[in-house]
Every structure is written in C-alpha cells, then in structure tokens.
Amino acid sequence: MAADDNTPPKPANHPADYVPPKVWTWNKESGGRFAAINRPIAGPTHEKELPIGKHPFQLYSLGTPNGVKVTVMFEELLAAGHAGAEYDAWLINIGAGDQFGSGFVEVNPNSKIPALMDRSGPTPIRIFESGAILIHLAEKFGAFLPTESAARAETLAWLMWLMGSAPYLGGGFGHFYAYAPFKIEYAIDRFAMEVKRQMDVLDRRLAESEYLGGAEYTIADMAVWPWYGLVAKGGAYESGEFLDVQSYKNVQRWTDQIAQRPAVKRGRIVNRAQGQPALLERHDASDIDKALAEAAAAKAAAQA
Questions:
Q1: Residue 28 in this model has a pLDDT that exceeds 80
Q2: Which pLDDT does position 112 carry in this prediction?
Q3: What's the pLDDT band for 17 if we cut at 50, 70, 90?
Q4: Fewest Cβ atoms nearer than 10 Å: which of 29, 121, 157, 240?
Q5: Does residue 206 lie in a domain region?
Q6: Does a structural domain hold residue 181?
Q7: CA distance 79 to 255
Q8: CB count, 10 Å around CB of 288?
C-alpha cells in the first residue's frame, strides 16, 4: 500500500486473511453491535431474582419482534374477552445482560427473550421460545388456533416456518448488513437472497389467502407480522430500498391490515424502550392507555 494511501487497513480477521484454526477458542470479542453480550457458554453470569407482579402471567421480555409476538397475543386475548389473560410485562434489557441473571436463566436456560411464567394454576409453569408461548396461550384459552385439523395444521406450519426462517433474517441478513464490524459481500448477498426468497414465499401465500393460516387471523400472523411486517415497511435494518420491499404487494396488504388491529397497536408498544409511543413495563391496561394518549398528545402538539 502506498504511503499516501489513506485507505484504512483491513481488520485482521477479514475473510481474505483468515484461516480457521483446527479448534476454535474464544479469545477475543466477536465484534459488531452485540459483541459485549455474545459468549460461547450458557448459564447465568450473576445473581438476580425476577420480579413477580399481581397477574396470572408474568412475562419477561423486550419490545423486539420476538417480544412483540407475545404481547400482541396477550392484548388480542384480552380484547376477545379472556379476562384470565391479564399479565405483567417486565423489561429485560438484553444490552445490559439482564438475560444472564440467575432468575431469568431459571425461566429460560437459553437466555433469550421472551420468557413466560404461567402462575394461573397451582404449580407455576415456565415457557420459553416465543412459538411455544403462543401455542401454550392459544391452547389454554382456546383462541387464535383453529381446532379443525387442516386449518390447525396450516397455522402451525406457518408458525414453524417463522421460527425457522427468522434467524436467517435477523442473525443472518441483519447481522451482516447492519451490525458486522465490516461488510462482507458474500455474506450479505447470501442472506439477502434468502430474505427475498422468504418474502416471495409470503407474498405467494398471501395472494391466495387473507391470512397465513387461511381465512382467520391466528397465532401464525401474530408470529410472522412483527418480523416480516417490519421488513415490508423498511423498518428492519434500514434495508427497505435494498430489498425492494414495495414489490411484495400482498405482504404489504397483509401488513397494513394487521397493523390496524387495536390489540396489535397496544401490544407492539409494550416493553419498548425507544420511539413513540413506548412503554417499558405493563402491569395494567391503563398503562398502555396512558402511553398511547401521551403519544397522541405529543403528535398533536408537534403538528399545531
């Protein structure tokens, strides 16, 4: 490199220079936005008990797409008249490592949000993995999961599609496009291709069906919408133009339709730390009412 060339040197682990060792060892941070909390071992890093509120369900979460799935489900259940679905939603700050506290690890040994304690019966039940939480709640209340065999199978298939597909969107495309310490063309191309294929899968399904499971709104829609609805509106990793999201017309229709549901508007703000409206914790329906009212007042004042 010429002495007057101001091009920064490539990182030592740039693909052109990197040869994997025979045995991988963890001797440095991985780099990127989440380097400080990534580690190759499980288990707690510190002692911290979880708070317990007054309601039958105790949710420990954050307002990411995975967390929004569950708060939308709770709000949909409440809107449908299932008073037994009252819940406390406690904030888990994953940037600060709350998910590695001893109490959280007891509920979810995988140290990922969301995690739920069902205290509605004589013996508390822990449920982790967002898809498992949705199924547990749907079966407990007999709601948003069809009982007819074909419709149930279709709904569960799309729910499992999300659980298998979202890691390619978030941990794959999102990481390399937005969070990695340097851009790797191969990785971005590989995962962009997969995300666009997934969007096409959704678009084709939604061309033939109002909702993913069929004619009815189900837990499949609640699971997929927080991830792929975000992509459809360009809100995921600021990649809307890059992924040409407007070309998926049926996904756009479905995204807008779900976004207008009152329970979705309520559930999407719970455990949300940024943006407006936002609500760090939810312990009563009035908490959401207040947050929405304050956001509406602030918007009106800004437009005045």
A1: no
A2: 97
A3: confident
A4: 121
A5: yes
A6: yes
A7: 20
A8: 20
CA dihedral 241, 157, 112, 23 (to 10 degrees): -90
CA nearest neighbour of 177 among 236, 94, 224: 236
Residue 37: which H helix or E strand, with range? Answer: none
Domain, as residue range, for 236: 149-266
The span from the CA of 100 to the CA of 46, in Å, is: 7
Sign of CA dihedral 220, 169, 68, 264: negative
Strand order in the sheet with 57-61: 87-91, 57-61, 115-118, 125-128
Q: Could you tell me the pTM of the whole model?
A: 0.93
Report the domain count for the chain: 1
Q: Please name which of 128, 191, 199 lies closest in space to residue 162, comparing C-alpha atoms.
A: 199
CB atoms inside a 10 Å sphere around CB 2: 6
Q: CB–CB of 217/77 below 8 Å?
A: no
Calpha distance 224→212 (Å, rounded):
9
Write down the mean pLDDT value for the chain: 94
Examine residue 201 and state whether it is found in any structural domain, yes or no: yes
CATH number at residue 198: 1.20.1050.10
* pLDDT exceeds cutoff 90 at 39: no
What does DSSP assign to residue 228? I
For 250, the token pair is 């049926």
Query: Taking residues 264-290, what's their average pLDDT?
Result: 95
Is the predicted pLDDT of residue 229 greater than 50, yes or no? Answer: yes
The confidence score (pLDDT) of residue 9 equals: 60
What pairing do the DSSP bridges indicate for beta strands 115-118 and 125-128? Answer: antiparallel
- Please, where are the H alpha helices in the chain? 65-79, 102-107, 130-141, 149-167, 185-208, 219-224, 230-232, 240-243, 249-259, 262-267, 285-303
Q: Which pairs from 45-48 meet CB under 8 Å and 24+ separation? A: 45/97, 45/100, 45/101, 46/97, 46/100, 46/101, 46/102, 47/101, 47/102, 48/98, 48/101, 48/102, 48/103, 48/104
